[in-house]
């Protein structure tokens, strides 16, 4: 099984960015544990701060992978293009967020992704990614 994880803007700063909300771990540290736990899965990981690069990555993996886990970060709340990309590809996308966006500012309550995603997992910290992997198994 091939699963692609795609992280959006500012998630390269996990571990140092607003630790009270996002924790102290870098994604790279967490990813080591995730790969160990699911050693039978072939993971691909991509992070970008650029909207168009995230769309291109969805196009690259969206016709051959078994699942996509997407944390589009701030673009979740603004990007019609990412929402359309999810609709355009064959592979199912699980939208994830580390924080509970509904417990935060109003602008984080809107997602352009959720209507086209297979499901949504949020608010479980980094564990949101593990739960998304489980959902594909
Ligand atoms: C986030 C939530 C978004 O609102 C925010 O812009 C992020 C991270 C999360 O994982 O909790 O950058 O997607």
Break the fold down into its secondary structure elements and pairings.
Layout: E1 2-7, H1 19-22, H2 27-37, E2 42-47, H3 51-61, E3 67-71, H4 80-88, E4 93-97, E5 119-122, H5 127-136
Parallel strand pairs: 1-2, 1-3, 3-4, 4-5
Describe the protein.
This protein is of the alpha/beta class and 137 residues long. The protein has one domain: Dehydroquinase, class II (Rossmann fold). The protein contains five helices and five strands, in the order βααβαβαββα. The protein has a five-stranded parallel β-sheet with strand order 2-1-3-4-5, sandwiched between helices. Helix 4 links the parallel strand 3 and strand 4. Helix 3 packs parallel to helix 4. The longest helix has 11 residues. The radius of gyration is 14 Å and the shape is globular. It starts with a strand and ends with a helix. The site of 1,3,4-trihydroxy-5-OXO-cyclohexanecarboxylic acid has 10 residues, from loops.
The parts where pLDDT drops under 50 for at least 5 residues are none
Biggest β-sheet: strands ordered side by side in the sheet: 2-1-3-4-5
Secondary-structure element string: EHHEHEHEEH
Number of contiguous helices: 5
Write the CATH homologous superfamily. Dehydroquinase, class II
> Any idea how many domains?
1
Provide key terms for this protein.
globular, alpha/beta, Rossmann fold, five-stranded parallel β-sheet, 5 helices, single chain, 33% helix, 137 residues, binds 1,3,4-trihydroxy-5-OXO-cyclohexanecarboxylic acid
């Amino acid at each position: 099984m091939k699963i692609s994880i795609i992280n959006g803007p500012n998630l390269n700063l996990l571990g140092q960015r607003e630790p009270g909300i996002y924790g102290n771990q870098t994604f790279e540290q967490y990813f080591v544990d995730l790969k160990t736990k699911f050693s039978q899965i072939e993971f691909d990981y991509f992070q970008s701060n650029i909207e168009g690069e995230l769309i291109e990555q969805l196009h690259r993996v969206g016709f051959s992978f078994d699942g996509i886990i997407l944390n589009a970060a701030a673009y979740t709340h603004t990007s019609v293009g990412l929402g359309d990309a999810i609709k355009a590809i064959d592979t199912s996308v699980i939208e994830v967020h580390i924080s509970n966006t509904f417990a935060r500012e109003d602008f984080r309550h809107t997602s352009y992704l959720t209507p086209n995603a297979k499901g949504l997992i949020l608010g479980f910290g980094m564990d949101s990614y593990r739960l998304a992997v489980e959902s594909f198994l």
